[in-house]
Design a protein that fits this description.
Elements: E1 2-3, H1 9-19, E2 51-52, E3 58-59, E4 62-65, E5 86-87, H2 92-104, E6 110-114, H3 121-137, E7 144-148, H4 155-161, E8 167-169, H5 177-183, H6 189-209, E9 216-218, E10 224-226, H7 227-235, H8 241-247, E11 269-275, H9 282-296, E12 300-305, H10 324-339, H11 344-347, H12 361-367, E13 375-376, H13 382-386, H14 393-402, H15 410-415, H16 420-423, E14 427-428, H17 441-451
Parallel strand pairs: 1-5, 4-6, 6-7, 7-8, 8-11, 11-12, 13-14
Antiparallel strand pairs: 2-3, 9-10
Helix pairs in contact: 2-3, 3-4, 4-8, 6-7, 9-10
């Protein structure tokens, strides 16, 4: 470990912003807090890190680690304790001043704050809590804040930070407990899932308190309990939050003392998985994501293509580059799960556990279910339209709205910017296809590959698709 004394803020910023680049779980949605007269900034439809927000703006945030010191020795992490890298740490005041100065210069619209683990999870989370509280209450910053929760920290600290952050995230790191044990033995799966559940339940109880949500669940004795009470029972199961926070000198929060209308982690929570460091299949990875979305109410699961920055012998080589195409396919499938009504078992199974290199998951699914096509544009329901390659969420909505006043033809679809070079094989207008097309998997696959402007890296341009036959000479 290399430690430098008297390091300037500029040098710290260079080190800790560079160290944060491997954390991809930073985006925002669902925040609608406007500006006010007492503070600076707002979080209206705010997006993160050179991405596009809901209103079309390209915006960014200050993305840093609080410290790159770490007591853990995860084999895949550049900041692991056994690495001889220059270590640096901000103070709460330095993070606040950097955020405000960057915001005043219109460089950013928010802060993404993650951290290594310095001394202990509780010590690090206390420093982060002090930072966020100072930023909100002393510097009156009203912009977007995304904060990482550190597994193993006290529930009281998770509870406290959630009232100052717009989004929180707990990195799952690796898809399974076995792979975590192999590459990050200091981390436990239960310590990661516990704060996820706490954040989920507290968000639901807060929404119910504000009248946004009113969920009740069925208990084993066939009685119903409100989600709010369940959340409080869960959070106070191990420690009484009020007592713990008082001992630590932190402000205790409860329904009566909070400001009226305050929200707990209003933009929800997300997580990140490293892809390619271990042997899990796409089917296994997406099954984990599906559970996280359905059971933990996550907003996003991020997939980070593994890069062997430590050149550890226990890790796969990435000399030929990170598995970016695999990462891309996982994001495409993730989109299908969240917005298109797909289930992972429709896309993959034990016999076909990985996504097609040549074809995006939606096209690949359609080719394996040609018995469902073609669909009639003027009659198909919304969810059927979503399953047509080349038709997205916005396109399907436009089609539904337009056909209320007219019978649509292919010219109308082109005007709506439907991707006809893909959709044309799967749809009809007025009972007819755009031109005579053979509904055959081999034929449509070759046509789709031929129409692609750019094939994946490493795939030959003259490649053709052919269905194998039992009568081919090579199989005899």
């Amino acid at each position: 470990m290399i430690v430098q004394e008297g390091m300037s803020i500029q040098k710290k910023l260079e080190i800790l912003s560079d160290a944060a680049k491997y954390d991809v779980a930073c985006t925002s949605s669902g925040v609608d807090r406007g500006g006010n007269k007492s503070g600076m900034g707002n979080s209206l439809a705010c997006g993160i890190c050179h991405t596009f927000s809901a209103d079309g703006r390209c915006i960014s945030l200050l993305k840093i680690l609080f410290t790159n010191e770490c007591i853990f020795d995860c084999k895949y992490c550049i900041n692991r304790s056994s690495n001889d890298v220059v270590r640096a740490s901000f103070t709460p005041k330095e993070v606040c001043e950097l955020t405000m100065e960057f915001y005043r210069r219109n460089y950013i619209e928010g802060l993404f704050l993650s951290s290594g683990i310095m001394i202990s999870p509780n010590h690090t989370m206390e420093l982060i809590y002090i930072t966020l509280r100072m930023l909100r209450e002393v510097y009156n910053f009203n912009g977007y804040i995304h904060c990482k929760a550190i597994p193993g920290a006290d529930q009281a600290l998770i509870e406290a930070i959630g009232w100052y952050a717009d989004r929180m995230s707990v990195n799952l790191e690796l898809p399974t407990a076995e792979s975590l044990k192999e590459l990050a033995p200091h981390k436990k799966r239960k310590h990661i899932l516990k704060p996820m559940r706490q954040i989920q339940l507290r968000r639901e109880s807060n929404m119910e308190y504000l009248g946004i949500n009113n969920k009740y669940i069925l208990k084993e004795d066939n009685s119903y309990v409100s989600q709010a009470n369940l959340a409080l029972d869960y959070i106070q199961n191990d420690n009484d939050i009020g007592e713990v926070m008082t001992e630590r000198g932190l402000t205790s929060f409860n329904q009566q003392s909070r400001p009226k209308g305050s929200k707990y982690v209003p933009a929800g929570q997300s997580t990140q998985m490293i892809i390619g460091a271990t042997k899990e299949t796409d089917y296994h990875i997406m099954s984990v994501s599906e559970v996280l979305y359905s059971k933990f109410d996550l907003k996003r699961v991020f997939y980070s293509a593994f890069v062997n920055v430590n050149h550890d012998n226990d890790l796969p080589s990435t000399i030929n580059g990170a598995p970016l195409l695999r990462e891309h396919r996982l994001y495409q499938a993730d989109w299908l799960l969240r917005f298109y009504g797909f289930k992972i078992k429709e896309l993959l199974d034990e016999e076909n556990p990985n996504f097609n290199v040549l074809m995006d998951p939606k096209c690949n699914w359609a080719l394996r279910h040609l018995d469902l096509f073609p669909v009639e544009i003027n009659k198909a329901d919304y969810y059927t339209l979503l399953r047509v390659p080349g038709i997205g969420v916005h396109s399907a909505r436009r089609i539904i709205a337009a056909r209320k006043s007219a019978i649509l033809d292919f010219k109308d679809l082109k005007a709506m910017r439907i991707v006809l070079k893909r959709a044309v094989y799967f749809i009809t207008c007025k009972g007819k296809m755009m031109y005579p097309i053979k509904i055959d998997e081999d034929f449509i696959t070759r046509e789709l590959l031929a129409s692609n402007e750019k094939l994946p890296h490493g795939v030959e341009k003259d490649i053709t698709f052919k269905q194998l036959s039992l009568f081919d000479g090579g199989l005899m």
